[in-house]
Design the sequence.
């Protein structure tokens, strides 16, 4: 069985994901070979196939790990004991910060999603739908309580916000004028202003 860590204790799956993420971001998914990934991670092909069945599985995991984090954080905001506008604003800002913190992962995914197998594509779409539905439920809760305007359908409100989030990788630069939290606050404020009754 392959070793699970290297000399510094980094688990092999994490090393493989880190190497794949860097190479996919630099070269593109389709121009990165399995051999390049295992060489960059310092493991054998056998180790890669022990943890990931294919390069497609690596691509899926690059995105899935961010989505899992965002889902956990959204669930915590949604379940909190706070007014709905505070919970929605927190969730809206958080998805911006976590996307910026994982900008390579987001860029790789939106550039390379079409390379996923039909099964993985279906799985990712279901995971994203679950996230969007939980976010939309916060909008709908506020609309039902009269806290948010019902002039714009909740689905459109969610698409508006996530359209901005999904394009962060095309324009946000870590050395730019705005810190991640500043971008998050601006976008969350825009969302809340759009929902004012």
Sequence:
């Amino acid at each position: 069985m392959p070793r699970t860590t290297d000399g510094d204790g980094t688990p092999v799956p994490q090393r493989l994901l880190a190497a794949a993420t860097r190479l996919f971001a630099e070269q593109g998914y389709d121009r990165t070979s399995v051999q390049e990934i295992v060489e960059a991670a310092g493991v054998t092909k056998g180790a890669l196939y022990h943890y990931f069945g294919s390069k497609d599985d690596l691509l899926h995991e690059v995105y899935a790990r961010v989505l899992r984090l965002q889902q956990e954080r959204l669930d915590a905001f949604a379940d909190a004991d706070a007014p709905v506008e505070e919970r929605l604003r927190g969730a809206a800002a958080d998805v911006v910060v976590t996307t910026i913190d994982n900008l390579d992962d987001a860029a790789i995914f939106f550039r390379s999603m079409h390379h996923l197998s039909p099964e993985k594509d279906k799985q990712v779409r279901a995971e994203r739908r679950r996230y969007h539905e939980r976010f939309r439920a916060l909008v709908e809760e506020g609309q039902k309580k009269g806290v948010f305007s019902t002039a714009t359908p909740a689905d459109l409100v969610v698409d508006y916000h996530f359209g901005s989030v999904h394009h962060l990788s095309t324009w946000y630069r870590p050395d730019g004028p705005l810190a991640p939290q500043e971008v998050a606050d601006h976008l969350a404020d825009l969302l809340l202003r759009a929902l004012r009754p």
Observations:
- The domain at 12-51 is CATH 1.10.10.60 (Arc Repressor Mutant, subunit A).
- The chain has two domains: 12-51, 55-195.
- Residues 38 and 44 are 6 Å apart (CA to CA).
- The chain is about 75% helix and 0% strand.
